[in-house]
Specification:
The protein is α+β, with helices and mostly antiparallel strands and about 120 residues long. Helix content is about 25%, strand content about 20%. The protein contains two helices and four strands; from the N terminus they run E-E-H-H-E-E. It has one domain. The protein starts with 12 loop residues before the first strand and ends in a 16-residue tail after the last strand. It is elongated and about 50 Å long. The strands form two sheets. Strands 1-2 form a two-stranded antiparallel ribbon. It has a two-stranded antiparallel ribbon with strand order 3-4.
Amino acid sequence: MESGEAIAIVVFGVGITVDLVRDADRRIDYYYYYYYYYYYYYYYYYYYYYYYYYYYYYYYYYYYYAEYAICTTRLVCPFDSMASFYHVVVFPEPGDKNDSPRDDVNEHGTPLLWATFPP
């Protein structure tokens, strides 16, 4: 993998989104609140494939990581009963060899906390 000169770009953004989501398993509708904070950066590679891969990975990694953090700390979950309906996609911690997204949700639909995740 031969890379070109590094060009770093950082973009910050914040926002709040409210969606009405249908849970197929429970056959009910519920409001899905989440606050998002994201940033991404990438390095310019000689090969377009690597440039695209890293842009995609870092952008989505930090987007979902922030969403997961805030949902599980219930900063924007209006009711405890609604918090159990959260279904979030999280990425492995930095350095994890498995860099594919996964669903960390238990049988009750509650997101599973990482042991190393800050309170």
